[in-house]
Amino acid sequence: MSDQMIACHECDLLHRLHFVPEGGKAMCIRCGSLLYSHKKNSLDRTLSLVIAGLILFFITNMFPLLEMKSKGLILETTLFQGVKSLYNQNMRGLSILVLMTCIVFPFIQLSGLFYVLLPLKYNRVPPLTSIVFRFIRKLQPWSMMEVFMLGILVSIVKLAKMGSIIPGLSLYSFAALIIVLAWAVASLDPHMVWEKVGSGNG
Q: Domain residues of the chain, as ranges?
């Protein structure tokens, strides 16, 4: 039993946090809504997805996103070059937004999760774990790569009239990164992280 309390998301009834076995769920005693669950193999599965996400992130930023062939000319662009192009076209606000939501925030989220989860797997708590974990949890809604991906697909349709559009390796890895990052967030058990952090500090 813990001294920490949790409020039901549906009826606001306060409950004392109890230990939940792996795969188990804690339900509200008033309305029956889910309070929290202990996801099976959450740490190992999430850590594996985070490592895969970091590999995909570097592939996405190292290789061309798109290649356009028109009248004998071949133009290639990377994700960062797209951001730079927006900046040079006096769309500085949009370029900064794309830079932060598609490059900076996802990298911070992935590297932050790696920093927290890898030591916890070996029952160690790295310095500033609580601060880092809270920060990446608050940062999660600002990672909007899927919106940028939709913009890329719309651009491909429009540019197809001007020449041949060849998707680059980066485009495929970018799509895979969106799926892997969403999967990692869904498989993460925050309560398990806090339990390990609490026991490690204790």
A: 1-38, 41-201
